[in-house]
Amino acid sequence: MNELPQQLANGLILGAMYGLIAIGYTMVYGIVQLINFAHGEIFMVGGFGALTVSLWLPDGFSLLAAIPLMIIGGVICSVAVGTAAERFAYRPLRGAPRLAPLITAIGLSILLQQAVWKWYPDAKKDRTFPQFSGEPVHIFGADIQRGDFFLIIAAPLCMLALAYYVNKTRTGRGMQATAQDPDTAKLMGINTDRIIVMAFAIGAAFAAVAAVGYGLHNGQVGFKMGFIMGLKAFTAAVLGGIGNIYGAMLGGIVLGVAEALATGYMADVPGMEQFGGGAWKDVWAFALLILVLLLRPQGLLGERVADRA
Amino acid sequence: MRNRSALILTTVLTTGALTLTACGSRDDKDSEDNGSGGNTTVTIGFDAPLTGDLSALGIGMRNSAELAVKTANKENTVEGVKFKLQPLDDQAQPSVGGQNAQKFISDKGVLGVVGPLNSSVSQSMQKPFNDASLTQISPANTGTELTQGDGWKKGDKKRQFKTFFRTATTDQVQGQFAAQYLIQKAKVKKVYLIDDQKTYGAGLAASFKDTFTALGGKIVGQDHVNPEDRDFKSVASKVKGTGAQAVYYGGEYPAAAPLSQQLKESGAKVPLMGGDGMKSEEFPKLNKKAVGDLGTSVGKPVEELASAKKFIEEYNKNYKENMETYGGGTYDATWAIIEAVKIAVADNGGKVPSDGRAKVLEAMSKVKFDGVTGTVSFDEFGDTTNTMMTAYEVSKGNKWESKFSEAYKPR
């Protein structure tokens, strides 16, 4: 009867997905102060890349062995789209007023959606994604689907790799320097153009990993899936403090858990019967966002940075 | 300079995106000879979601309507008249449907419109069509209030729009039929109720709830979901604790498929039941654990009707997309307009009357023919007189299989 562990697990898995996508928003924002609204579609393209690989593989190929290949396929597609977007849509606008790249991002998002809709075979409706068969595994009072272990393993691994990369490698430190002050960083000999491309590429790669998780979790991918997920991930990035990579993951998990708990329990609060359930979960998630931003405008882990506009 | 090229790029991208969106409805091959050899061309408008996640249903409808038009032209059903289908895409959005309605109205050659799929879209089309006296027949709108008004629950039925007809039975009939099936045939007493808050889903759930409780069943919980969501784990976890023997869902297959699968994965091993919006061939494809799920649909399964044999044969010969739930109903709806045109032309001495729209509308009440789904005619509200309902179950082979058909009398 006690469904709390189950709801926490549901929220955690959803949150890990939000967090992985949110990394892309937060890294790009941290470095070029651009909200890349096409990131949700880059996530979607990653999902279709992974799906394509799984369709190429012969029948009877073990899914466990296919997953690394699917990740590679998804990452290649989304990184290609992400870096191409940077090179051809955002870089020419770098000196322009902020609204120009923002609108470009929205245009790009529609373009990518429609391109997949138009040219990917049979993508005019949701496509089925391979899934693990077998019963869910029971741990700590929660049933966890086999496919969801992918996210449980992949999300922390990705975070560790990213933390190492940003703090320990030369390019990573160059990234931090560019985020702090792009002009000075350039004077110190950092190739900022390359750094910015890297930020887009890493964000896109993480989005592709999230997309594989999404496919395994929901059993389908569709050309519209990037919109809602992108919006939620952006919210997660703001919630955690935009520009902060750990904040993005934390924000994602807080958002996911808040949604699950709102669905599961809000109706049990006296006087709130009609405000519970799946229809109101987004309302509560965003109420939480507003509350956090009122008390901590910089987000959960964000630092107060002077606006450089 | 740099800024200017950037601006051009932005413009190109945005225009490109917009063009692509607009392209959606025009990717079909149209090679019909219209108007040649002294023939008058009558256009039949068609509206349904041809893109987006409900497009499987919409494209099946478009193909069926096209088939009806082609058949009429080939068999020369109406002497001296060639029919032409003009399909528009509404993306399942009421605002787009409203714009399409205006487009049909301003084209004087349009004498009737078939569609749309969604009740919510229909609500934005009924009034303009009514003002223009343009006949509209929906093969899929099941919202009871569309024909009988909001007072239908209290028995205060009032026809809303003289121009609106449908070949689909109402949510009222469908929800009641589902409730009766669950109680009497499936012996289910406790149901968890979920809907997607749209006109169709909420109406279906409401009608189901009333009948199910009246027949002695118990609704052990109720929830609403967002039809755009694909993650229903939290809702599924909640169902598990309530002891429900089945879940009834008012909504359509794109959300119903993951909902059903996640229900079973969460450990609540109960079937999901839904209406004709869920009973799509896509549903078992998108759902690994669909076996045992139930759905209701209007009319007898077309495969079992002798009158439908020819239609199915012709359809499969001409189209590769599945005809889906509304194929037969759409063919009949289109044919009803063709029949009405035939009556109007016959009354006018073999010519299309100058006030074609008014005459076609007048003829609608006289239309009666044996269609794909049975005898097609309309009652005083514009509803179909055919209340045949069928319950389906997803069989072991992961296909919908008809279980039980009945000409249901609404309570």
UniProtKB/TrEMBL annotation, chain A:
* Keywords from the named record: Amino-acid transport, Cell inner membrane, Cell membrane, Membrane, Transmembrane, Transmembrane helix, Transport
Annotated membrane topology = Multi-pass membrane protein
- Annotated CDD domains: TM_PBP1_LivH_like
Gene Ontology molecular function terms on file? L-isoleucine transmembrane transporter activity; L-leucine transmembrane transporter activity; L-phenylalanine transmembrane transporter activity; L-valine transmembrane transporter activity
- What Gene Ontology cellular component terms go with this record? plasma membrane
What does the record list as coiled-coil region(s)? none
Asked whether the keyword Kinase is assigned, the reply is no
Question: Which Pfam families does UniProt cross-reference here?
Answer: BPD_transp_2
Provide the protein's localization: Cell membrane
Q: In terms of one coarse class, where is the protein primarily found?
A: membrane
Q: Work out whether the entry's keyword set contains Transport.
A: yes
Q: Which InterPro entries match?
A: ABC_transp_permease, BCAA_transport_permease
Where does the sequence pass through the membrane? 12-32, 39-57, 63-85, 97-117, 149-166, 195-215, 246-267
User: What GO biological process term is on the record, naming one?
Assistant: D-alanine transmembrane transport
The record's similarity note reads:
Belongs to the binding-protein-dependent transport system permease family. LivHM subfamily.
Q: What is this protein called?
A: ABC transporter permease
- What species is given as this protein's source? Streptomyces silvensis
* Lineage of origin: Bacteria, Bacillati, Actinomycetota, Actinomycetes, Kitasatosporales
Automatic annotation (TrEMBL), chain B:
Region Disordered: start-end pairs? 24-44, 134-154
Q: Which PROSITE patterns match?
A: PROKAR_LIPOPROTEIN (PS51257)
Q: Name one Pfam family in it.
A: Peripla_BP_6
Top-level taxon of origin: Bacteria
Residue stretches making up the Leucine-binding protein domain: 41-397
* Keyword Magnesium included in the entry's annotation: no
Q: Which UniProt keywords apply?
A: Signal
Where does this protein have compositionally biased stretches of type Polar residues? 134-147
Q: Which CDD domains match?
A: PBP1_ABC_LIVBP-like
- Which InterPro entries does this entry report, sorted A to Z? Leu-bd, Peripla_BP_I
* Family per similarity comment: Belongs to the leucine-binding protein family.
Spell out the protein name for this chain.
Branched chain amino acid ABC transporter substrate-binding protein
Question: Which organism was this protein described from?
Answer: Streptomyces silvensis
